[in-house]
User: Fold this.
Amino acid sequence: MGIMLSFQEVTKIYPGAEHIKAVDSLSFNLKEGEICTLVGPSGCGKTTAMKMVNRLIPITSGKILIDDQNINRMDTIELRRSIGYVIQNIGLFPNMTIGENIATIPKLKGWDHDRITEKTESLLELINLPPGEFMDRYPKELSGGQQQRIGVARAMAVDPPIMLMDEPFGAIDPINREHLQDEFLKIQEKVKKTIVFVTHDIDEAIKMGDKICLLKDGKLVQFASPEELLTQPVNEFVKDFVGGDRTLKRLNLLKVKAAMSPAPPVVMKDESPEKAKSMLGELKADHLFVVDNENRLMGYVDKEALSKKADEVGDVTRSTDAFLPASSSLKDGLSEIFTHDLGYIIVVDEDKKVLGILTEDGIKEILRK
Amino acid sequence: MQIRLFYPFIKKFGVMAATAIIVILLYQYYGALEYTTKNLSEFFRLTLEHFFLVIVSMATAASIGVSLGIIMTRKGFERFGSAIMAIVNVWQSVPSLGVIALAYAFLPLVGLSGIGVVPALVALFFHAVAPIVRNTVAGIQSVSKDVIEAATGMGMTPNQILFRIEIPNALPVIMGGIRTATAIIVGSAPLACLIGGGGLGFWIFTGIALMDMGIMMAGAVPVALIAMLFDALLARLERIVVSEGIQSGEYQEA
Ligand SMILES: Nc1ncnc2c1ncn2[C@@H]1O[C@H](COP(=O)(O)OP(=O)(O)OP(=O)(O)O)[C@@H](O)[C@H]1O
Ligand SMILES: [Mg+2]
Assistant:
C-alpha cells in the first residue's frame, strides 16, 4: 500500500514566539490504513503537528503531502472535509440532535435525504448505539463516552480516508477509556483509515499505534512500531519515557497466539470413560480436556469424575474457564496461568475451538527475542 | 402525582384569573370602564398607536441590534466591537425620559422634526437596542470554543458556522436581550405622547394632569396588559425558535 500521509521537514514557529520551534523539521511517512500515535511530554508539539494536517495551523516551512498532493495547494474547505477530525472535548453541536450532528457535512455536501439517513444509521450501528434510540436525542442527554463515540461517528460521516484525533479519549475515565479504545480498534479493523492519533499517554500510544512518533521539544526522537520502540529505544529519553516496565508493556502488546505451543492430547466427548482413564495413565496427568466433534472445548475430566458410571466422557465432563482467546494479550495470558495454577492455559479461537496451550516458558521465550 | 401533573395548568390559569380580577376591580373602582366605553373609538385609536410604537421600535431594535452584535463578534471587528459596547453601555444608563428629551432636542439638528411619531420611535429604538447588542455579543461569545473548533476542523465555512452553530446556540441569550428590550420599550412607550408620539400614554398623562384616576387607569391598565402580552408572546416564540437541545427543562411563561 502506498504512502498516504507524508510530513517533509515540517516546521512551525508561532508568530510572537519566534525563539522556539513548536515543531522542528518533522518528517515521517504513514501508509494507508495505519494509525500513527503522536506522543511526547506536554508542549512537545503534538497538537501543533496534527493541526497542520488540516490547516487549522499554517505550516511555517516544509510540506505535508496527502496522497502525493501538497495540502497547501488544496482548497481548505475541501481538504478539511476529506479529513475526519475528533478533539478531546468532543465539540458536539448542542443545538442539533445526534442524527443532525453526524449529518452535518453530508448535508453541506448536498447528499440526498435517503443517503444521509442510511449513512447516519449505519454509523450509529458501527459505534454500537442503536439508531432508533439515539438518532433524535440531543448531546446533553448522552454520557461522556457516548458523546465521544458520536464525535468519532461524525468525523467518519463522509468516509474520509484520513482521520485526526487529538486525545480523543483523554477526558474519559480509565475504565471506559479502555473500553472505547478496544471498540475503536475493532472499528478500525473494518474501516482501515489512516489516522494521526495524539496522546500523552505512552500506554495508549503503544496500544493504538501501528507506528509511534515520539516527539520532544518539537523534534522527532523515534519513529517506530510499538514493538521496536519497546525493544530498541534509541536513547535514554525514549527509555525513560517508555518507562522501566518495558517488558511488562510488551506483555500487553504481544498476543497469546505468538507464544502458543501445540495443544496437549484431548479427549472427544463421545469416547468411553475407560479410554479416558487409560489416557490419563499414559500421560501421567491428573486431568484431560474434553472437546466436541468440532474440536470445541467443553470442559475437563479427572479421575474422580471418570470413576462415576457413564457411557460417554461427555456425561461426566466438568466445565472450566481455564482457557482464553488467541487474540488476548500475553499479560492476560500470564494472569490466567497464575489464576488457574495448572502451569498452562488452553488457547481457543472465537468459536472456542482448541488451538494450543500457553505456558510460562512460552512467554519467557518470546520475551527473550 | 395527579395534582403535580396539573400544576402547570393551575399556575397558568391562576395567573390569568388573578390578572382578570385585578383588572376588573381597577376598572370598576375608579370608573375607568365607564370612561373607556364612552370613548371607545379613541380607546381603539390609542391602543393601535401604542401597538404600532412598540412593534415598530421593537422590530428595528431587534434587527439592527442583532446584526450589530453579530458584526462585533466577527474576526477583525473585535476592537471596533468593544468601542461600540462602551457607548452602548453608557447609553443604556440614560433614563427613558432622558432619551425622549434627547430625541426631542437633537432630532431637529439633523433636520427632522422633534415632535411626532418618528422622534418617539427613534427614542424607543435607541433605548432598546443596547441590551440586544449586548446579549447578542455575549451569546455568540458563550458558544464553546471546542464546538467552533470542531466545526472549523470538519470543513464548515465561517458563514455556515455563524448560521448553523453560533446563532442557534446563542439564541436563548439573544432572546433574553430581546425580552429585556421589549420590557424597556413597553415601559417607556407611554412617554411617547409627551413629544406627540401618541399611544395610551395620552390617557395616563391626561389623567394625571386632571387628577382623574379613572382616565389614568383607563390608560394604565391596558398598558400593563400589553406588557404582559408581549412578554408571553416572546416566551412562546423563544420555545419555538430555540432548539430543544439547549432549552433548560423548566420554563417560565409569564
Ligand atoms: N497559538 C500559539 N501561540 C504561540 N505558541 C503556541 C501556540 N500554541 C502552542 N504553542 C506552543 O507550541 C508548543 C507546542 O504546543 P502544542 O500545543 O502543540 O503541544 P502538545 O504536545 O499538544 O502539548 P499538550 O500535551 O500539553 O497538549 C508549546 O511550547 C506551546 O507553548
Ligand atoms: Mg495538545
Q: What stands out?
A: The pocket of magnesium ion (ligand 2) is lined by residues A 46-47 (CB under 6 Å). The longest helix of chain A spans residues 174-191.
